Every structure is written in C-alpha cells, then in structure tokens.
Amino acid sequence: MRLIPKEIESLWTLFTAPTIWALHFLTCYITAAIHCAKADTAASLGTTSLVLGMVTVAALAGIALSAYLAWRQWGFGSGDPPHDEPTRRDRLLFQGFATLLLSGLSFVAVLFVAVPLVFIEACQP
C-alpha cells in the first residue's frame, strides 16, 4: 500500500526541495533580523533559535519526503543515467534523478543556513 499516490509526481516536484530551502532561508534570516532589531543590544536568541530549529527540522523533513518521492520516481535507482532517450519512461527517470540531486543539494543548503543558529547566541551590536 502506498501512502502517497504516484500521480503527484510531476514536473512541479522538481521545484519542491529548492522552494523549501528558499522559504527556510527567508524565515530564518528575517526572523533573526526582526528579533535583533526589536531587542536590546546583545539580546539572547534562545527562544528564537528554538523556534527556528523546529522550522529547520520541518524543512529537512519536507526535503527528505521530496527526495523519497524522487527516488521512487527514479525507480529506486533501477536505471543508470543518462536517461536521454525520447521516451516517457526516460523523461520520468531523468526528472526523478534530477529531483533527487536537487533534494540532496537543498538538504545540505538548509543545514548550512542553520549553522549560525548553533554558533550565534546573541544579537551583535
């Protein structure tokens, strides 16, 4: 039994992971900027870091789901690239492989965006 139907795998899935990364990037940096602008100098980022940590976990989960769907569309790695034949099957395999690569890149990008949340403890004056 499949929890997620196969019909949702379309060209739009290619953009899912980078979109999640972009929204995570904007959320983290805008939230931190607003917090530091409203707070006194050297204010702690404790609660804000915790909330942004939860946003990061949610973003990573969304990207992992996108990667799973891409892996499934790629046929669980059954076909080796390049998928360059002018057939529907090769187009779907190529799209799944490309989406899987973008998901990996987006996962790493979210981790890099979250690194300052770990090392920066207070707003800088």
From TrEMBL:
The chain crosses the membrane at residues 12-34, 46-71, 92-120. It comes from Shinella curvata. Keywords: Membrane, Transmembrane, Transmembrane helix. This is Transmembrane protein. It comes from the Bacteria.
